[in-house]
Specification:
The complex is a heterodimer of chains A (84) and B (469). With 84 residues, chain A is mostly helical. Chain A is built from 3 helices and no strands. The radius of gyration of chain A is 19 Å and the shape is elongated. In chain B, strand 10 and strand 11 form a beta hairpin.
Chain lengths: 84, 469
């Protein structure tokens, strides 16, 4: 079997405590209000609270490139350039 | 002595695009007759499959009649002239609702065609209708049965799902309810339902096909895709969509010319290990994959087993930052004002996206460049790479965690992140359910994918029967 070495990337950052189940509902409600989501129904805020910890864990699982000059991939297209 | 009755000719909906096109061009099959056969197939089938959100029969009959008149007058426009197709309901079609399967868009009627729809109409293709999709063409991997339209069922076993998000596209093509279909892919939304329904599903190198007029889901990952029954049909549609020059200005060439070419001497990289963090494929998929590799070897290809530079599970983690964050940005107003009218899956994704830190989003986009460079390096010296598509068989509707696992346990996201062209293909059946693999090409080398996939297809019997739900 042929195999190739992987690219140089640093290890993942320290992961948050897996037992951390995220913010409490008051904290989540305050966060939502600060970010324009204060109108969400209580059950949606409760769901958002449940999602907070796994989203944070996924984010921290992403390896960070070792070099600071490794920029993000280009993100946006200019719509006019692709118009038929 | 009695003369045996001549067997009835198979109905036109069973024809491939290549066959139908040739008959239409020779005047042996009229576009209206082909359309009526497809409409009859929809009438007989779609109450169980739910591939269509809307059948535009009147408009389709008008277009088919126009095609017939043009062809009769000697104005044949090309291989798709008079052939029926359908599009995911996230595509704009002038005058038809584009609901994206959402209560929020039931009354949304665009004034213009999406760029790809316009190209197909210019090629003389006949739009039959709009196809089922997950809400807004996205979700959280699960199915919650809470949208205004029922989810498309898997036509090989209607107790099962197709996989999303272009659910109706795969189901329609697998059953002959559309000659071909257009969908869109962000992290597998063309290849996953193609795999689940045993159809061909292909995405090109990003930039080849325009996204204009398709409801955005994720600016940096969205890409249109094509569903067909055969590889040659896929090449025909792609040729019509790209034309001689793609949307980014690159020469596109004819993919159809790659069909029928030998793969003797082709060098193909094989990724048979999903890598850390992913489950092993279901046993039937593993057996199907190895059997398909043996076919490639018997055709003279040289196979070299390799590993992905970044495991698929890590790529999935990156897309779990990029996808939800961009979706939440795109649909922020809808979340703020109408969260209660959304289905659970869309709302869940937007809520999650609203929690993504910018630092983590950018980390994912930085990893994406690493993935792209790594796969470019890996593919150097190879004509293509083959690997698994899904790691599971299509799930039974309403059963979790199987439904979500079918969506997330795949080998698709590395190539969304990297921007390589890719094709999902049927590699056989197990207990009546389609198996699949994925063929990935170098950037802008869709031709090698088509050459390999067509050679495999020609050497195997998997295109003989459509699904009979």
């Amino acid at each position: 079997m042929a195999s190739r070495a992987g690219p140089a990337v640093s290890a993942t950052p320290a992961l948050p405590d897996a037992a951390d189940d995220g913010p409490d509902l008051a904290e989540m409600t305050a966060f939502a209000r600060r970010h324009g989501l204060g109108g969400l129904a209580p059950e949606h805020l409760a769901r958002m609270r449940e999602l907070a910890a796994p989203v944070a864990r996924f984010g921290m699982q992403i390896r960070r490139p070792a070099r600071k000059d490794e920029a993000p991939a280009s993100e946006f297209r200019v719509t006019g350039a692709t118009r038929a | 002595m009695t003369v045996p009755a001549r067997p009835a000719a198979p109905p036109p909906w069973t024809l491939t695009l290549a066959e139908a096109s040739a008959r239409v061009a020779r005047g042996e099959l009229s576009p209206p007759a082909l359309l009526e056969s497809v409409l009859a197939r929809i009438e007989a089938t779609d109450d169980r499959v739910h591939a269509y959100i809307r059948v535009a029969a009147a408009q389709a009959r008008e277009a088919a009649a126009q095609a017939q008149a043009e062809i009769a007058a000697g104005r044949w426009r090309g291989p798709l002239h008079g052939l029926p197709f359908a599009v995911k309901d996230t595509y704009d079609v002038a005058g038809l609702p584009a609901t994206a399967a959402s209560r929020l868009r039931l009354d949304h009627v665009p004034a213009h065609d999406a760029a790809l729809v316009a190209r197909l109409k210019s090629a003389g293709a006949v739009l039959v209708g709009k196809l089922a999709t997950w809400e807004f063409g996205t979700g959280n991997a699960g199915e919650y049965f809470d949208l205004p339209f029922p989810p498309a069922r898997n036509p090989w076993d209607i107790a099962r799902l197709t996989g999303g998000s272009s659910t109706g596209a795969g189901a329609a093509v697998a059953t002959g309810m559309a000659g071909f279909a257009l969908g869109s892919d962000t992290t597998g939304s063309v290849r996953l339902p193609a795999a689940g329904t045993g159809t061909v599903g292909m995405i090109c190198t990003p930039g080849r096909l325009p996204l204009d007029g398709i409801l955005p889901n994720c600016w940096s990952l969205d890409i249109p895709g094509v569903f067909t029954w055969t590889v040659e049909d896929c090449a025909i549609v792609m040729d019509a969509l790209t034309g001689p020059q793609d949307a980014a200005g690159h020469p596109a060439g004819s993919l159809r010319r790659s069909v029928g070419r030998s793969i003797a001497g082709a060098r193909i990289a094989v990724v048979d290990d999903p890598g850390a963090g992913s489950p092993r494929p279901d046993a039937p998929l593993e057996r199907g994959f190895e059997a398909a590799l043996a076919v490639l070897e018997s055709l003279g290809a040289t196979l070299v087993r390799v590993r992905l530079p970044i495991p698929a599970a890590e790529c999935l983690a990156a897309t779990r930052m990029i996808g939800p964050a961009e979706s939440a940005a795109i649909h922020e107003r809808e979340l703020v004002e109408h969260a209660d009218r959304m289905g659970f899956a869309l709302r869940d994704k937007l809520l999650a996206g609203s929690l993504v830190r910018a630092v983590d989003y950018l980390a994912a986009q930085r990893l994406r460049r690493t993935v792209a460079d790594g796969i470019d390096t890996l593919l150097r010296g190879f004509d293509a790479l083959v690997t698994y598509g899904t790691l599971h068989l299509p799930p039974i509707a309403g059963v979790e965690p199987e439904t979500s696992a079918f969506t997330v346990d795949t080998m698709y996201t590395p190539f969304n992140l990297s921007g390589h062209p890719s094709l999902s293909q049927c590699t056989g059946f197990a207990d009546g359910l389609p198996l699949n693999w994925q063929i990935v090409g170098n950037r802008f080398d869709e031709a090698s994918i088509v050459r390999i996939a067509a050679a495999y297809e020609a050497a195997t019997p998997w295109r003989r029967e459509r699904a009979q739900p």
